[in-house]
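Annex B.
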Amino acid sequence: MPRLFYPAAWRGDVVEDLFGFPVSDPYRWLEDSDDARVRDWAAAQDRLFLACREQWREKEFWASSVDQVSSFGVPEPPTVRGSLMFLAEQLRGDEQRRLIVVNAEGDRRVLVDPMEIDPSGHTGLYAWWPSREGGRVAVQMEVAEQPGSDIVVLDARTGEVVDGPLPRARNTSVAWLPGGDAFYYVSRVPGEELAPDDMRLHRRVRLHRIGTPWQDDTVVFGGEDAPDHYYGLTVGADGRRLAVTAVAGPTAQNDVYVAELVDPEAPRFVKVVDGAAVGARVLPRFLADGALLLVTDHEAPCGRVCVADRHDAGPAAWRTLIAEDPQAPLDECLVLDGPALARPLLLVARARHGTSALTLHDLADGRLLTALPLPGAGVVSCLRASVPHGHQAWFSYCDATTPPTVYRYDAALGTMEREAGAATAGHAPRIRSRAVRCRAGDGTEITLFLFTPDEEHRGPRPTLLYGYGSFGMPMRPWFFPLAAAWVGAGGTYAVACVRGGGEEGQHWHDAGRGPNKHRAISDFNDAAAWLVETGTTTRDQLAIYGQSAGGLLVVAAAVRRPDLYAAVVAEGPLCDMVRYERFGLGCTWTDEFGSACRPEQLRWLLTYSPYHNVTPGTPYPAFLFTGAVTDLQTGQAHVTKMCAALQHATAGDRPILMRREPGTAHAASPASKERALTADILAFAAEHTGLASKTTCGSGSA
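prolyl oligopeptidase: predicted structure tokens.
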């Protein structure tokens, strides 16, 4: 195709001396989204994208395909409290999920419908926390492009608002006290109490009593010495103890504090786990006798389950209940201790090379009792039980061809039943799924999930390769509408489980973060090269795709090996790793990536920061950068600056495009906008890899 004429972007002469490193930043001016020059330039980019989009040959086909494979229904297990069951449901045509409550007789009613609150579809159901008895539920909504989230408390039987709103509670945890008259939650310090340029989180744990003004809520934990901490809250079944986990951003270690709730307004906390000393994650919950059940990767990178006395919870006093399996990382576990059981039980979910297994254990000694049958070789998630005591467990199951489906396990009867789930609007394609192993350049084996059409085929196929590789997040063979649509059209969809993720436990995460982040990028390129070398695809048929930190992965990979790819799609990516701490929540991610404020860490960042490694005169692949106009999580400047840098530098004729979406958030949008984005991503990738619909192929078109 002819080379595009890109909107003119002035190249500034900003060069900073950072610890002796001259760091050029020619597009610093694009960080100011309020500048009229930036608005005009971005509007011109919008027009360019729409003009290019009009030339895509099969955009209507992809829109239809995405609509057919998108799933609707109840994808997550219910939250059961007392005689009530709370669940989220999204039907075909719904822009957002609705909160449904079901009583003991099976009668259903809509408790919260975001479309009644905001018919535009830009307000979504973010989280909900029913009280222990089920009479009340704290609900949090999310409004696109707005930094704060309020909590309101509803009567679960009538839907009437009984309290709130409680402001600035984004990313909170809620722990109800027995009786449903009070709960602990997390909220940010009011903005007027902070300096104008203070981007820190400044969270506090507060106690709220129903019916009292939020201004009177007592701060029970948190202070100025922990400006970037996230807090997790857990109250024991008897309501007499509170545990708080404290972590500075998404780091690999956390502190644990425990308090006796003699006076809920003034709990006296004891630090029972020192994250810096232990150097591991430790997630606590209280057992019926007051002891602590600890899920940890301390001295067990793939995770183990321990029991400890709440007064002496140092690692030396931990008793291992479920030992580590180095070949199967621990995903989650759930206590079942209802009166219908002969003895308390522990349900454990693990993943071996991405495929889940569920096992049942005696809670007293960890002894294996049985392995539970699953519907297939797929993924189990979201283990839930009734609170405070229950004998039934709900979980979600999915695989490459099965949308999320809810199952209920009754430990008293030993039965497993399908209870609810999601379904696609049309017929999901038949997909063949398998895991393969390839070697990275240093000899390390990497798992690749491959999804292909369930039909005989010889020769390479157009391939879309996905990766993430950050924050210890494991990749799994989930049901993914984008993948189903791509494979349904005859392509191969692949997922690379690179270092930096959590597929092989904490050591796998450590091997791809901080000074080792370059390994995640080289792993991804090695996986892509393997796909080409084995004849799975060719370089002209290979597109790559990543979201958020995965966007960083794919952009960095393509900047390092532009010859390897035909197209790159980066959704809400990080690109300027020297200044990422100044945008969105970047200041909380230094444990993962490093900080440009430290000379040795600046060196790490400069080696792979995509924005700083763009080379003029290079024939780059086609790029599609997508993101919200206002991205409160990563910051929109990553997209604008990287797009401008590549448009200036590329010597090729493949387009560098930017697709902006107003009225959305980093990871939450109305369903129709999500489908439209997915269709555009697929159409762009297909356009540059040669994947054509079977209808088009049959008509003899290219």
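The first strand starts at residue 15 and ends at 18. The chain has a mean pLDDT of 91. Further annotation is deferred to the next reporting cycle.
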